[in-house]
Amino acid sequence: MDDEQPRGVRFESNDGVGRIVLDRPDAANAMDLLAARAFGAAVDAGAGPDIRALTLTGTGERFCAGGDISTFLAHDDARLYMRMLATELEEHLRRLSDMSVPVVCGVHGAVAGAGLAFVLNADLVVAAASTKFVFAYPRIGLTPDCGVSWRLPRVIGERRAMEMALLGRALTAEEACNWGLVNEVVPDDAVDARVCDLAREIADGPASALGWSRRLLRQAWETDRQQNATDEIETLIRLHSSDESRTLIAAFLAEHGLAKERL
């Protein structure tokens, strides 16, 4: 396994927008160790200096069925393999969450198990109308991984997270939108176009301001109010002195006929 090349996830980029594509359609884009490593390589590429926005989508009939159970059973040491897969995938998802590039995720078909982790680590999520969201872990006698148990209650609330986990509640796309798990629901054939439009809008915006806003909002879960205020002030001051901010401030003042003696 260690000698095999990562595969199952690919990265593309065009004009400031990077695309991470889950590409194991025959396995419902379920994650095995090689796919997790390929995802890590895609995250690395997505952190490149020319990338201003990222999209995350999947090929085939389902977005992601979670972990590839068949590979657990096929491995000589299933416990070791599961530990390696869960650890590696969590590391790459955490890096995706911590980076300063906004992520737009488009989902369709089924989002199950660890597939939820991709959704939870994105910033904006567009769902096809026919999408189903399933906690899935208890169906095979397992518990959450990849940070799902940490992020899910923070995104949809503890009570609703418990409903999904304990009762096996599957959400429709509309329910997921009402619960705050996704931002928009679109016709099945419109997901890719909408994801591209949102990513393009972000990529055309002020990269530093949007990237740091993303970081501040995500770090808010892990810092207290005082630290958050300090981070906000320091970031505000840092960006105010940037060329990007100065240019935008000057344009704003000119548009509104305001004085611009000091910037």
Question: How does this structure look, described?
Answer:
This protein is α/β, with parallel strands linked by helices. It has helices spanning 33-46, 69-74, 78-98, 115-120, 148-156, 158-167, 173-178, 191-203, 207-219, 225-240, 243-255; strands at 9-14, 17-22, 53-58, 103-107, 110-112, 124-128, 132-134, 171-172, 184-186. It folds into two domains: 9-203, Alpha-Beta Complex (2-enoyl-CoA Hydratase, Chain A, domain 1), CATH 3.90.226; 207-255. The chain is 48% helix and 15% strand. Strands 1-2-3-4-6-9 form a six-stranded mixed sheet, sandwiched between helices. It has a three-stranded mixed sheet with strand order 5-7-8. Helix 1 (33-46) packs parallel to helix 3 (78-98), helix 5 crosses helix 6 and helix 9 (207-219) packs antiparallel against helix 10. 37% of the residues are buried.
Quick structural summary:
The protein has 263 residues and is of the alpha/beta class.
Proportion of helical residues: 40-55%
Q: Compute the separation of the termini in Å.
A: 57 Å
Largest sheet: 6 strands, mixed
Instruction: Flag low-confidence runs.
Output: none
Task: Furnish the topology, listing elements before pairings.
Layout: E1 9-14, E2 17-22, H1 33-46, E3 53-58, H2 69-74, H3 78-98, E4 103-107, E5 110-112, H4 115-120, E6 124-128, E7 132-134, H5 148-156, H6 158-167, E8 171-172, H7 173-178, E9 184-186, H8 191-203, H9 207-219, H10 225-240, H11 243-255
Parallel strand pairs: 2-3, 3-4, 4-6, 5-7, 6-9
Antiparallel strand pairs: 1-2, 7-8
